[in-house]
Amino acid sequence: MPNLVVDFDTLLTMSGKDLGTTDYREITQQQINLFADATDDQQWIHVDPERAKDGPFGAPIAHGFLTLSLIIPFWGELFDVDGVTTKVNYGLDKVRFTSPVKVGSKVRMNGSIAEVTEVKGGAQIKVNATIEIEGQERPAVVAEFLARFYK
């Protein structure tokens, strides 16, 4: 269940709203391997734990796009809009992978609604999303995520 559920009319007033922070999720080697298979990105820094020990990060790391894709399940923990017919992930305006996520790390997301814009038949929101790594000052991902909600 999301931390916050609002109706469409309330959504239109939410520019600047802090949505809080999700629970942590652990990044596992199995998750990394499945992502590598799905995207055909088998680079050793992700999928070869023995070789990765001697690599630049000292352990396998998650693909940046794997970490980015966690915005979707994290988003579901933070926010939802009731009484709409369609919800669409509209895209991203800006993405930066600012720190690698080592296997076994725990990540979480905090978000805030930066902007709400009315569009034909609904509304678009821009969310400032930051995926943090437990125990590290520097986040893994900083992104501007766009979502649309249609009445």
Automatic annotation (TrEMBL):
Protein name, please?
MaoC family dehydratase
Top-level taxon of the source organism: Bacteria
Question: What Gene3D superfamilies does UniProt report for this protein, alphabetically?
Answer: Hotdog Thioesterase (3.10.129.10)
Q: Where is the MaoC-like domain?
A: 16-130
Instruction: Please give the organism.
Output: Paenarthrobacter aurescens
Lineage, broadest ranks: Bacteria, Bacillati, Actinomycetota, Actinomycetes, Micrococcales
Fetch the SUPFAM superfamilies from UniProt.
Thioesterase/thiol ester dehydrase-isomerase
Q: Which Pfam families match?
A: MaoC_dehydratas
What family does the database annotate? Belongs to the enoyl-CoA hydratase/isomerase family.
